[in-house]
Amino acid sequence: MTWNDWKWQLQNRIVDLETLQDNIALTEEEKVSFQEASAFFSFSVTPYYLSLIDRNNPNCPIRKQTIPRPEELVWNPNEVEDPLAEQKFMPVKGVTHRYPDRALWYISHTCAVYCRFCTRKRKVSKPEETPNREEWEKALEYFRSHSEIREVILSGGDPLTLADSQLDYLLDQLNQIKHINHIRIHSRYPVTLPMRITPSLCEVLSKYFPLYLVSHFNHSSELTKEACSAIKMLIQKGNVIVLNQSVLLNGINDTVKDLEELNYKLIRSGVKPYYLHQCDEVVGSGGFVVPITKGLEIMFELRGRRSGISIPTYVKDLTGGGGKVTLNPNYLVSANETKLVMKNYNEDEFEISH
Ligand code: SF4
């Protein structure tokens, strides 16, 4: 087994403070917050993703996404454990069915790297949440019996944690359900574990065209040679249509320059920037949140001045499960949605025109 083997990378993840300190000099703040933060939401990083950290820069964008900081220990009043109310809309274990035409299916609760801003930190990384075979069958039965479902989104954790044969089985079962129009996979492995994209995985994925994969690149420095090769393989050998969603993150990608570089590099790599998400109000996320006013200003700068295909849609998933609203620099979509968006924000923060 070698560095380029995804199973080696997973088996050799750094998960504890001692091993992390053997690899990187932590700041005092990072040392202090590590134990408490990781007791609630596990710590894990692949050797590959760790190698991308600029060790001399405490503000390195990859470091900030990966290593707990004191802000994570602060739970603000507007923050909740399940901001998108995914548990409330769960008819069978592992399936969230909120919008009539699509369902989200959590087929794994493991990730290679646990992002400190994760919306699902309440359950991701917890082994008891990993769905078993019986639960898969119940979920499949649910999809078969609900003809209004046109799209199934494989999510997690990271769905690509599953073996090729397991993915093949699940994709095949979904593919046989006539009312399902298409399948989408959300994965951060092109970012944190690009060696997971192998010829054998692509052989499986290529059978299920049109298959959409949404990657989660947040910063241009994540688009390494390895990541770009993985994307190329997904597109050319896996026949996969690749889109990207980013989270707008304080001190990580919250400038016009950061997002321009990220989005141009995505386009250059064959990936369409799809969504830019306002960070969800999950517990301990305060250190990552960028004010909506600032996000709107960045989008205003980007739109109209940069290539249209490089511009994602800026959205907020409403806390409480109200769904996504578009955050548009020129207007917000309706008075009601405006009120919902602003519920947890200072109304003086930004001007609204309809
Ligand atoms: S990859 Fe996604 S599910 Fe996994 S920790 Fe990061 S944000 Fe959470």
TrEMBL record:
Q: Which keywords describe this protein according to UniProt?
A: 4Fe-4S, Coiled coil, Iron, Iron-sulfur, Isomerase, Metal-binding, Pyridoxal phosphate, S-adenosyl-L-methionine
Coiled coil stretches, renumbered? 10-37
Keyword presence, Metal-binding: yes
Gene3D superfamilies per record: 6.10.140.1170, Aldolase class I (3.20.20.70)
Q: Which GO terms describe its molecular function?
A: 4 iron, 4 sulfur cluster binding; isomerase activity; metal ion binding
Q: Which residues carry this modification: N6-(pyridoxal phosphate)lysine?
A: K324
Q: Which InterPro entries match?
A: Aldolase_TIM, LAM_C_dom, Lys_aminomutase/Glu_NH3_mut, rSAM, rSAM_sf
Q: In the UniProt record, does the keyword Transcription occur?
A: no
Q: Which domain of life is it from?
A: Bacteria
Q: Where is the Radical SAM core domain?
A: 97-312
Which positions are annotated as binding [4Fe-4S] cluster? C111, C115, C118
| Swiss-Prot/TrEMBL cofactor(s) | [4Fe-4S] cluster; pyridoxal 5'-phosphate
Family under the similarity heading = Belongs to the radical SAM superfamily. KamA family.
**What protein name applies here?**
KamA family radical SAM protein
**Source species of the chain:** Leptospira ognonensis
